[in-house]
């Protein structure tokens, strides 16, 4: 992952851990595809920057040191078919490269994941 920022004499304390993503939201019922619904999903993830209803996506700034969320549940109330029901929605990060599938981290490759014991021992064995 590569994070670029305009040069400043003093960078913020959060650089380079903050990364901006467009996230496509999949699974929101048609009657709930509103700015309010997408804002509530974005606010639950991290800092929301924009909502694009035409493409069912949100733009957020995410802390790269936290694990990514690829699915969440949303409570839909007041609709014709969804009265207080939880519905699972999928989150698809656009232009997401180099993350770990094992623990959903942006800090290391899948081959170097400390949670993947078999892969870890294989790397140690091969280095000797």
UniProtKB/TrEMBL annotation:
Domain Zinc knuckle CX2CX4HX4C per the UniProt entry, residue ranges: 66-114
InterPro entries (alphabetical): At4g02000-like, Zn_knuckle_CX2CX4HX4C
Superkingdom as given in the UniProt entry: Eukaryota
Protein's name according to its UniProt entry: Zinc knuckle CX2CX4HX4C domain-containing protein
Originating organism: Brassica carinata (Ethiopian mustard)
Organism lineage: Eukaryota, Viridiplantae, Streptophyta, Embryophyta, Tracheophyta
